[in-house]
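Technical note accompanying the year-one report. For the benefit of new consortium partners, we illustrate the data format agreed upon in the data management plan: each record pairs a sequence with a structure-token string. No post-processing was applied to the example shown here.
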Amino acid sequence: MIQTEDKKDIITLAIETSCDETSVSILRNGREVLTNIIATQIEQHQKFGGVVPEVASRKHIESINQVIELALEEAGMGFSDITHVGVTYGPGLVGALLVGLSAAKAIAYAREIPLNGVNHIEGHIYANFIDHKELEPPFVCLIVSGGHSHLVYMKDYGEYEILGRTRDDAAGEAFDKVARALGLNYPGGPEIDKLSKLGDKSAISFPKAYLEEGSYDFSFSGLKSAVLNYLNSERMKGSEINVANVAAAFQAAVIEILTEKTVKCALEKGVKQVVLAGGVAANSGLRSLLMSECEKNGIDLRYPSLKLCTDNAAMIGCVAYYDYIRGLRSDMHLNAVPSLKIGDRY
């Protein structure tokens, strides 16, 4: 565990604007969240069936100053109390990222305090450190969200080995596309999870892509296509479609692959801890199946509270804190990197 000799509290102001959530959080010593404000844009994007980058950027511009002020007010602090500023600089939508970066740079420059650029994917992993104060590396982490599906071995703070990743659609992306085909509301993941509880997962057989022997990579494009082909075929035949059964069978195909590869990976690595992260970590079916399989294999499973599964600034602040106490700093030339990979630093 990293420790700092300085006993003075480190106060982090963190900003997250990588997609469609404008979030600002203030943390004490990395793991104590004093406030975590999230201004969502779901209502603005629902009519489009997904996030529109230009709309997201404009909403971030409209919201960012108000959210910063509210976060400081709720924490009972002013800018003079802040030790450093953490901000997401990738991956994400470039316009959205630039709004958060501009605000973070302005605060750091005006107050003459350090700036720490944070990788959004790392943030999802670190959300678990907030909810589980005793959690420490090493562990295997399954990161599943709308844009990312990764299996990562976290050796230590800031040290990662990528063991597997999606080769096409991310798990959350597949959920959203299938939900749209089923006529469900955006975001589609929670809607499919809810419907799955009413359906029979064995009513329809959808393919599961295991890929080549020994691979921990994922592929959900074929599964998504199989669902769309099934729906088109049934509609052409004039058959009634049981939407709950489709949702249950699709979800089962996704979570079984995710669970099987995660547990196998942890056993191969010889670790007794598995961590779940990302927006799809809120899926009740995935949590339940992964918990069951981990218990069978003597593995301890941790996952964040629902609020910390989705995009939020608290998880960004946690990463920023550990980077800060390790002596890492970003300068005013820090720019948005939309395709930033986990472990990369600029």
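Partners are asked to follow this layout when depositing records. Residues 137-304 form a domain with the Nucleotidyltransferase; domain 5 fold (CATH 3.30.420.40).
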